[in-house]
Design goal:
The protein has about 110 residues and is mostly beta strands. The protein has no helices and ten strands. The strands form two sheets. A six-stranded mixed sheet has the order 2-10-9-4-5-6, with no helix packed on it. A hairpin with a 6-residue loop joins strand 4 and strand 5. It is globular and about 40 Å long. The model has no long low-confidence stretch (mean pLDDT about 95).
């Protein structure tokens, strides 16, 4: 069993930056690939980024070059650095294990608006 808690969301102006964190419980965190998904109001949840146990990363086209996913296995932490934010990045962001997606956090709201 893995429990996930996201934090770091907030209101930011276009072009700004935020760093999301996901704290994971359990000793299995370092053994599983992790990812970030997001869900905008009225839309389906969509993939944002993922990182394997070995540190290989994958990004949605919409965020490539702007977002960076990373992890600290010693601290059971997952991160998403988001730069040059756009209004279309506004959504609730969730961390999850990939590809099974059977563990989810409660989400953290990111709002990009002037």
């Amino acid at each position: 069993q893995v429990q996930l808690v996201e934090s770091g969301g907030g209101l930011v102006q276009p072009g700004g930056s935020l760093r999301l964190s996901c704290a994971a419980s359990g000793s299995s965190f370092r053994l599983i690939s992790m990812g970030w998904f997001r869900q905008a109001s009225g839309k389906q949840r969509e993939f944002v980024a993922s990182i394997t146990v070995g540190g290989s990363t994958n990004y949605a086209e919409a965020v490539k070059g702007r977002f960076t996913v990373s992890r600290d296995n010693a601290k059971n932490m997952l991160f998403l650095q988001m730069n040059n934010l756009k209004p279309e990045d506004t959504a609730v962001y969730y961390c999850t294990n990939v590809p099974r997606n059977n563990y989810w956090g409660q989400g953290t709201q990111v709002t990009v608006s002037s």
